[in-house]
Specification:
The protein is an alpha/beta fold and 154 residues long. The protein has helices at 14-27, 48-60, 80-91, 110-115, 129-148, and strands at residues 2-8, 32-38, 66-76, 97-102, 118-120.
């Protein structure tokens, strides 16, 4: 089992990239992890053609035998403990990977949302996409430390 995080575009701010790298390193003690980037499409406003292109590229990176979790403002919000329990349940499904998709500035296509096994929201607040990536990685790391019973979560 592994964790994969897929998102469009590069992380622009160096300090976010350093944080992402740190949590990937920490997570590798608990689980195999892979980060994948796809081309970011920049449309005007809510351009559906760009959203659909980007969505197809994101979905093309999702392995066939995986559990797909999509981050979207419309998704369900959960506590860190509930998230850790969810990861345990997803791992027990016997899938190859748990894959998280974090959308870019234009949002996610209907096709990506429709293919998701779960849709989660990090918060009612709005974060930059770079920050959302870092927060997701920190929460995945926190989930594994909760599962392992380490002091990180306390």
């Amino acid at each position: 089992m592994r964790i994969e995080i897929i998102y469009p575009g590069k992380t622009k701010a160096e300090y976010f990239q350093k944080g992402i790298d740190e949590y990937v390193k920490r997570l590798s003690r608990y689980v195999k992890i892979r980060i994948q980037q796809v081309k970011e499409y920049k449309g005007k406003g809510n351009d559906n053609a760009f959203k659909e292109k980007e969505g197809r590229m994101l979905l093309a990176k999702v392995p066939k035998s995986s559990f797909l979790v999509v981050l979207d403002p419309s998704g369900k919000q959960v506590s860190s403990e509930q998230f850790a329990d969810s990861i345990t349940q997803w791992e027990e499904l016997g899938k190859q990977a748990v894959v998280f998709i974090v959308g870019g500035p234009i949002g996610l296509s209907r096709e990506v949302l429709d293919q998701a096994d779960r849709i989660l929201s990090l918060s009612k607040m709005t974060f930059t996409h770079d920050m959302a990536r870092l927060i997701l990685l920190e929460q995945v790391y926190r989930a594994y430390t909760i599962k392992a019973g380490t002091a990180y979560h306390k």
